[in-house]
Amino acid sequence: MRRIFFLLALIGTSAFAEPLGTLTVVVQGLRSQQGEVALALYADEGSYREREGEFRAGRIPADSSEIRWELPELDYAEYAVLAFHDVNGNGELDLDDRGRPTEPVAFSGEPRRRGKPPRFRQAAFEFGERSMTLELELRHRDRADQGED
After folding, report:
1. What's phi and psi for 97, nearest 5 deg?
2. Distance between CA atoms of 93 and 101, rounded to whole angstroms?
3. Could you tell me if 89 and 34 are in contact, meaning their C-beta atoms sit under 8 angstroms apart?
4. Residue 144: is it exposed, middle or buried by C-beta count within 10 angstroms (0-12/13-18/19+)?
5. What is the pTM of this model?
6. What pLDDT is recorded for position 1?
């Protein structure tokens, strides 16, 4: 009798488990193998806007022209990703006196705000697959200064 209750409990909890998947973030466009690529996954507007309280974060050595960040067991939800190449390895996204990044940066979604980082809604994407790959291209300051996006 105990086995039946145990089996029913096990079946019941797995039937209502949240769906989970693996997100792979590929960051392309590294021009040097110095420093690290810092990545942050945000699950809501507030933490994204303040750049604090990221849902998951990671740092990967910049040892090739692209890096891969695997996020296993991720809930199906809406997220935004920010990545930057911390070339000098100081642990921060360096900014100029006008608040613009001096290190290469990438956002998920379709950010098109010149001179300002995209809002959460612009950078957000829906994660709802067992396996998904998100490709980000680093934007370098020299390209932005020339008017290229």
Report:
1. -70, -15
2. 7
3. yes
4. middle
5. 0.79
6. 56
Tokens 């392309």, located at residue: 28
- The answer to whether the beta carbons of residues 102 and 139 sit under 8 Å apart is no
Task: Decide if 100 contacts 117 (C-beta within 8 A).
Answer: no
Q: Helix, strand, or coil here: 136?
A: strand
Of 60, 54, 51, whose CA–CA distance to 30 is shortest? 60
Question: How confident is the model at residue 148, as a pLDDT?
Answer: 42
- Report how far apart, in Å, the C-alpha atoms of 5 and of each of 13, 16, 98, 116 are: 12, 17, 64, 57
Mean pLDDT by 10 residues, the chain (149 residues): 52 61 97 96 89 88 95 96 96 91 91 74 94 95 50
Residue with tokens 């067991």: 73
Q: Token pair for residue 98? A: 């006008």
